[in-house]
Amino acid sequence: MDNINRNSNSNDMIHNSNQDENDDVSSQYYAAHDALDLMMCPDRVHERTFEALPSMTRNNNNNTNNIRSLVSSSTDHSTHDGYPVQSDLQQEPTRTTTTIQSWKEYMIEFYKKDSLLIDVLLAIFIAKLYPRLGAELLFPEITAHWVAVIVIFYLSGFAMRMEQLSEAASNWKFNSFVIGYNFIGISFVVTIVANYFARNEIVSEDLMKGMIICSCLSMPTNLMLVLSVSSNGDEAVALFLATIMNLIGVIITPLLVFLYLQENAEIDFVSTYKSISLRVLLPVTCGIISRLKIPGADRFAMEKRQFFVKIREKCLIYIIYATFCTTFVVDTDSTRSQILIMALSQVILLSASMVLAW
């Protein structure tokens, strides 16, 4: 009797073992089926994975964890039967979008860093396309030569304090060096190079004289001020030197032209001083007085300093645009190659002079 009971218990254990094996096979089958389904359609909800399993398997925590681990691990494979999984395919547009976004951010940062140079080049290119617009239709004699210049110097006076201007004027050693270097040093070197080009017929005689005369002129006030501010230079020193150099340039420039070319350079002193007073001195004075007298103007000037810098840069770009439009409209006997050589030589000479001055 005991032997019969033992045999019966043994058969029950074998039957239960076979049933467990069948349940494990069934659970693995459904897990593998859902894993393949998830790889092909990851957005589908796999509720039937747990609903289709027998109740005993569903209640078995170990089998349930095995199914979930199989389903989740199936999504980590990069391929299935040699084909990419849809999740990896969905990552490709994300990588492309990220690359485009990084390039976009790089271009924006590049433009912010060198916005003035880029805008100047674009202005010259646009001026070449249709020069009549800036040379005639936009009335450059008023908008560029007066309005833009007055805006630049009014904002300069408004953004500056009298203490800064007084300190800039008191540094007479530095100011004397800058004035002498720009009027005498640069003009002397340019005269030697221009005469060499003319003797070897690299440039025409008109271009040679133009190079020498330009080197004898004082720095344009608006260009000198805006470029100094854009390069984080001393705005007060730039404004003081720009004004002084243009005032004394009326006397120094004719003397230098006569010395280098043996030709008289006629300059209308009254008209020149009147233009400097109305376009430079008066706007700067009005800007300084506005900051001192208007309530809250001092704080507003400090908060909007960078905004004022951008406005002055745009005004300068418009002046350059109008100037090049007028240049492209006027006919010249010089060839394009001669003009290009002259321009490159000027850039090289100015760069060298900046290095020496530094």
Distinctive features:
358 residues; mainly alpha; two-stranded antiparallel ribbon; 17 helices; globular
What features would you describe in this structure?
The chain is mostly helical. The chain contains 17 helices and 2 strands. Strands 1-2 form a two-stranded antiparallel ribbon. Strand 1 and strand 2 form a beta hairpin. Helix 6 packs across helix 7 (131-137). The longest helix has 39 residues, at 2-40. The protein is globular and about 60 Å long. It starts with a helix and ends with a helix.
Residue runs with pLDDT of under 50 for 5 or more positions: 1-22, 42-61, 70-86
SS elements, strand count: 2
* Overall form: globular
Put simply, the count of helices is 17
Percent helix among the residues? Answer: over 70%
- Output the structural class: mainly alpha
End-to-end distance: 115 Å
Q: Taking strands numbered 1, 2, ... along the chain, how are they ordered across the largest sheet?
A: 1-2
β-strand percent reads under 5%
Q: Provide mean pLDDT, rounded.
A: 76
How would you characterize the largest beta sheet?
Answer: 2 strands, antiparallel
Radius of gyration in whole Å, from Cα? Answer: 40 Å
- What's the helix-strand series? HHHHEEHHHHHHHHHHHHH
